[in-house]
Amino acid sequence: MDIHSLLEKSTILANAEVDSKKELINTLVDLLQPKVDDAALENIRESVFERESIMSTGVGKQLAIPHGKCSSIDENLASFAILKEPVDFEAIDNEPVKMVFLLVGPESKNSTHIKLLSRISRLMNSGSFREKLLKCSDSNEIYDAFQSEEVEYFGA
Asked: Model's pTM, two decimal places?
């Protein structure tokens, strides 16, 4: 499964303004609202915060990949944000976070979830790609950047 196919322009924020890790995660979860009902949205929120309480998903290099699995959804969902100002995310390198990729999936598809997390990590590990993303001014440019980078990195 392609990462860019999980994203939609409506689930991408450019220059997002948030003041905290909690507000950031809530904002990213709320972007999924049109795709799920209110009960599922709250289950997603709970699963992401529960996972985050175990260990921060701030992976370094100004990136966080909060994620979770829940029984109330049957497909993988994602949202992405580039922040106007970095926020503290308790990242492993103690640096604030500027880009955040949220991934949630069904509990029944653990191996797919792990594969997607790995693919996101590999893609986002590219310094040139992160720089390219930071130059994007809107969700259209961010979406197009993901699509072209993924084709270039992983092939068509």
From this structure: 0.95
